Amino acid sequence: MPTSSIFLKPNSNFLPEFHLFPPRTLLFAKPRSRMTSFTSPSGGLKLNLRASAKTGGAGGSTDASLTFDDDHNSGFCTLMEFVGKGGLDVGDELGILLGHLEYAFKKIAALVASPFNSTLGKDVLVSGASADRDKPKPLDVVSNEIILSSLRNSGKVAVMASEEDDLPVWITDNGPYVVVTDPLDGSRNIDASIPTGTIFGIYKRLVETDHLPVEEKAMLNSLQSGAKLVAAGYVLYSSATILCISFGSGTHAFTLDHSTGDFILTHPNIKIPPRGQIYSVNDARYFDWPEGLRRYIDTVRQGKGKYPKKYSARYICSLVADFHRTLLYGGVAMNPRDHLRLVYEANPLSFIVEQAGGRGSDGKSRILSLQPVKLHQRLSLFLGSPEDIDELESYGDVQQKVNPGYEV
Questions:
Q1: How far is CA 264 from the centre of its chain?
Q2: What is the pTM of this model?
Q3: In CATH, what class is 278-394?
Q4: Domain Fructose-1-6-bisphosphatase class I N-terminal spans what residues (predicted)?
Q5: Residues involved in catalysis
Q6: CATH superfamily, domain at 92-267
Q7: Each residue of 288-340: pLDDT tens digit?
Q8: Residue ranges of the alpha helices (H) in 214-344?
């Protein structure tokens, strides 16, 4: 019987001669230009964005250039350079962990883009899920194994808690970090080539639990409050593969250059607009919503809210994709049902949006103030611009507690 193979080398599925990011800076700036600079908190790294407008008729365009300045006058800034001693200097141990996570993300990016992933889905036997978890998809399981293998190889992780596992996996006693993850969010969309993603959070190991039995200390380490996150991020697998991450000092996004295998800093110091004009939610569930949420949506759609413009609906049904758009353009992305996971989704994404100047809420309380009590605990989630979240919360009764259920 013929078989198919999927090669998970990060660059194996991409044309090597295509360079999305040239190795050297390209300057297209004209005399009429503006320069915007970002300097890392440590002062050792500087990114310049130069933009200029071409003149000459109604069809004029904009030119831009991106330069990265450091002591070695190198070209673009990679993720490893950004977190190294010339940039944020997150420390050697966290840097090693990030290097292994980066490798895992590139393997998953190659996997979801592979023409053979549908064949893989037919060949992989997937066991059932507990009542607290969705039924796992084959690619979710493979992505989970890729991340777990990378964390084992790093030697820097004590325990990994995943949306795909009923219980946390204890990896090594002396690992300084804890990783929580949703390995492949939105995987049901893959066959339609709709964006998917990975969500992750990183905590420090609770050394005060070291004397406890493995099962108990693994659970306690995994149920830390989101306020204790050391770093959090997501990866968007779409027309570009984008890694967005925060270490508690701003939110930054890196785009994968498939020709070199490097994540390149393309969105330094992201700031979500104070208010947007887009809401992202499954409008088909309108009649299941509580009264407060219906009134809020009706109001902003008509342009009768605190922002006197009519809002537009944009909904992909892929949390990472909906959140990424909201982070860049503003507005609010939400799921009013008790559906999304506090540990794997709500906490990491709330950490990221807060570091970009936004808010993460369950409709009543700040997400990062909540203490998880169950590994797969679910809740309502509202993420976005601070003014939009404030206005939404002011309506009260926005959490959908009645869930009639429906099949997709």
A1: 16
A2: 0.81
A3: alpha beta
A4: 92-268
A5: 134, 140, 163-164, 182, 184-185, 345
A6: Fructose-1,6-Bisphosphatase, subunit A, domain 1 (3.30.540.10)
A7: 999 999 999 999 999 999 999 999 999 999 999 999 999 999 999 999 999 99
A8: 214-222, 291-301, 319-329
